[in-house]
Amino acid sequence: METLQNPRTTVELGTGALAAEDIVAVARHGAAVTLAAEAFTAMTASRTVIEELAADDKPHYGVSTGFGALAVKQIVPEQRRQLQRSLIRSHAASSGAEVDTEVVRALMLNRLSTLATGRTGVRPKVALAYAGLLNAGITPVVGEYGSLGCSGDLAPLSHCALALMGEGEVRTADGERVPAAAALAAAGLEPLELQEKEGLALINGTDGMLGMLTLAIADLHLLLSTADLAAAMSVEGLLGSDAVFAADLQALRPQPGQAESAANIRAVLAGSALIEEQKTGGFTRVQDAYSLRCVPSVHGAARSTLQHAENVADCERASAIDNPVVTPDGRLESNGNFHGAPVGYVLDFLAVAVADIASMSERRTDRFLDRSRSHGLNAFLAFDPGVDSGHMIAQYTQAGIVSELKRLAVPASVDSIPSSAMQEDHVSMGWAAGLKLRRAIDGLTRVLAIEVLTAARALDMRDGGVSTSRSAPAVTAVRAALREVVPGPGPDRYLAPEIEACRVAVADGSLLAAADSVLDTPLL
Fold it and tell me: 306: Cβ–Cβ under 8 A, 6 or more apart, which residues?
């Protein structure tokens, strides 16, 4: 959804933290991936540790033992490569609808970043093979079910490792679904034969849920600013007051994020003739409804939640998640860092914020359609009420989405189902939290689009259209941008394409860019 202003064309991975914009660039914009010299040095050093352990006669988890509840079985040297192959084949057990390409690419980049730290013990050849898949635009086919968000996103990562081996199915750069072996051959890539520990190192991370979190954060930066814009348009279209958004009033409650939301609304409404007319036209309402007056409180809370999620994501991207892990001093140690609780919690938390932002947006839209609350507008914004129904059913669509968003806000991370014969007896469900957040973000995008579409129609009905606009300059710019893809008020038309056109304009940032084009500084 989110469009980078200057997307990177190449991302270099070293031993340090991966940047959020790097994930967006690779996952969404097809940026190439390279490995820094320090990554090769680190991987070579840790591989030496694994090879030394493989040569002794002691059991070492992931090197010379089985996995999970089968870790009690020691594997003889001549079976250890088969051990790694069997691990990947058996764990590539996903099912259900195919996961979006951008999610799989983000997952792959996160895993490659961990490999590059030198903490997993894989050969540099493994990391190069992973980079080769990404750079060739080869995306393994992954089903939505299969990860419990603990011991890594096991099934999704296993499908990616399976493709490295030349097995399973993939999507090519042009979207064709083909056998992995054929895609590798067409790209000039060789199937990878895994050695000790390498299969385990390829699947033991929070990479999928972290990828979804990183992409969601990028989307929500755009959508929360758009929500402020939509709310400002509704305040203006409903002849509300801008007094409540004053900086000194907001400062009385210094909640992080609230001041930013209020500042956005003030900027969008600056210079509005419609707002100013309400201040000189006799008796005015002393208070607007909560869905107008309390926008900074709600949108600000969502911004604070987003900041918390960013902090968690930053920490996770700076992590080397594997089990066992090769420590900087050369030890191979088991750990629980693969548990997805930190990421799962904030994925769920964001879904709560998304649902509430959408709920408030729907309430503002509904006010436009009710003659008793719209302050002089036609019922349902119909061109000829009774003959026409206007935006009556657009609000139904919003209501249906908002109802689903409330269901999606139920946290996944409070659930846990024991697995692997009770060895893995508490799991995070972070992968499921990520998938439902993606659906929630899509819903929020559609809800905001309908609010903007409705507010623009109401404003056109108040002042006759963009050419005679009495809106604030920023709102006028947004109305003009929207009218390039959606006609103004008139008799009822086929409405679904207009909703979709506005959804695209919200998702690609063009409506926000229209507002920014006439403001001294971009919206926060």
Answer: 217, 220, 221, 224, 257, 350, 353
Three-state DSSP at 170 gives strand
User: How high is the pLDDT of residue 63?
Assistant: 85
Helix (H, G, I), strand (E, B) or coil at 65: strand
∠ CA 296-302-304 to the nearest 5 degrees?
Answer: 95
Sole residue written with tokens 């000194």 = 248
- With contact defined as beta carbons under 8 Å apart, do 523 and 228 qualify? yes
Can you say how many angstroms the Cα of residue 7 is from the centroid of all Cα atoms in its chain? Answer: 17
Taking Cα atoms as reference points, which of 492, 76, 157 lies closest to residue 323?
157
> Is pLDDT above 90 for 3?
no
The owner of tokens 């730290």 is: 117
Q: Tokens 């758009």 appear where?
A: 226
- 61 is known as an active-site residue: yes
Beta bridge partners of 162: none
Q: 122, exposed or middle or buried, with CB in 10 Å at 0-12, 13-18, 19+?
A: buried
* pLDDT at residue 450, rounded to an integer: 98
What is the model's pTM? 0.95
Domains of the chain: 10-205 (1.10.275.10), 213-516 (1.20.200.10)
Residues 6+ apart with CB under 8 A from 384: 491
Active-site pick, 61, 290, 345, 494 = 61
The residue type found at 131 is A
Integer CA distances (angstroms), 485 to 264, 501, 510, in order = 25, 7, 11
- Mean of all residue pLDDT scores within the chain: 94
Asked if residue 385 has a cis previous peptide bond (ω within 30° of 0), the answer is: no
b/e per residue, 390-411, with b = 16+ CB within 10 A? bbbebbebbbebbeebbebbeb
Q: What is the rounded distance in angstroms from the CA atom of residue 87 to the CA atom of residue 66? A: 9
* Cα separation, 178 vs 162, whole angstroms: 14
